[in-house]
Automatic annotation (TrEMBL):
Chain segments carrying region Disordered: 1-64
Protein name in UniProt: Methyltransferase small domain-containing protein
Amino acid composition bias (Polar residues), ranges on this chain: 1-10
Pro residues bias locations: 42-58
Compositional bias annotation for Basic residues: 17-31
NCBIfam families: hemK_fam (TIGR00536)
Gene Ontology molecular functions: nucleic acid binding; protein methyltransferase activity; S-adenosylmethionine-dependent methyltransferase activity
PANTHER family: PTHR47441, RELEASE FACTOR GLUTAMINE METHYLTRANSFERASE
Organism, scientific name: Panicum miliaceum
Low complexity bias: start-end ranges: 32-41
Amino acid sequence: MATLSLSSRPLTFLRPNRTKPPLHRLLRHKPLASSSASALTPPTPRADPSSTPDPDPTPLFLRSASHPVPAAALASFRRRAAALVPPSAPHLHRHLRWLLADATADPSSDPALLRAPLDDLEAMWTRHVRERRPFQYVVGNEHWRDLVVAVREGVLIPRPETEAVVDMIRKVEGFADGRWADLGTGSGAIAVAVARELGHEGRVFAVDVSEVAVEVATLNVQRYGVQGKVEIRHGSWFEPLEDVKGKLMGVISNPPYIPTDDLPGLQPEVGWHEPKLALDGGKEGLEHLLHLCEGLSSVLKPGGFFVFEALAI
Ligand SMILES: C[S@@+](CC[C@H](N)C(=O)[O-])C[C@H]1O[C@@H](n2cnc3c(N)ncnc32)[C@H](O)[C@@H]1O
């Protein structure tokens, strides 16, 4: 089993027989090594997240606290919610505390002012416990580096190990005034984090083929006020970068890299709910990475960098 994330709000990719953590690399136009396939756990039934869209995609903690409920009703919800937690899942009690913290403007007031109707909270909690919907999708955000990144179904929840790519490129000489591309930007977490470190001339081109990702990344870029430094571009990998060919100091990417055959063995929070487009790396998990490596030389300026996340080999 390899764990890809262990944060305050954990989400893991479970892959039997994979023992190494993901690899982050900092390369100067170097080729890639391959990874090996693994055995699978039996397929698990798949929820269909598209059939139950979020009534409100705004992160819970950003919604207005406009739903008064008697403190006794809130306490009763807390007891009912806690009673749903199986003994084998103590982390769910922690999630319940976080849910209430995000949902309540002033927990000591009576009536309590909630950011969503109590019935909605009840439904959100039930989906988390019964359908294994990731907690991050329930509350609509993930804590990542020093950011609180908005997320929702259709966009990958950024993982803590991906934080390392930002630390890596910050060390590159000339980083702050360089032009960078974040290919497969998803929530835009990398692009926003990089943009906040850039100098006056620095820019990030954040590319994703997913419309949901483009929407969520746009929201995160706006929330952090880095519109002047991040350009979000919709399209496949290098396609939207024609105008900056040969001008980039570096390309950063956390492309989909789970081998297709491993997808059915992912833990339900991931396999049932996170977008296949963000996970499926094709046979051996290298399809997208190899495509990126092939195209790098056309967009990088001489001496440019490629920083990426991949499975360990
Ligand atoms: C593993 S996720 C990474 C998301 C984000 N960068 C992060 O680290 O949280 C991979 C991303 O690549 C995007 N993607 C998949 N195929 C793509 C393509 N052909 N062109 C651009 N982006 C693509 C997915 O939509 C997804 O957002």
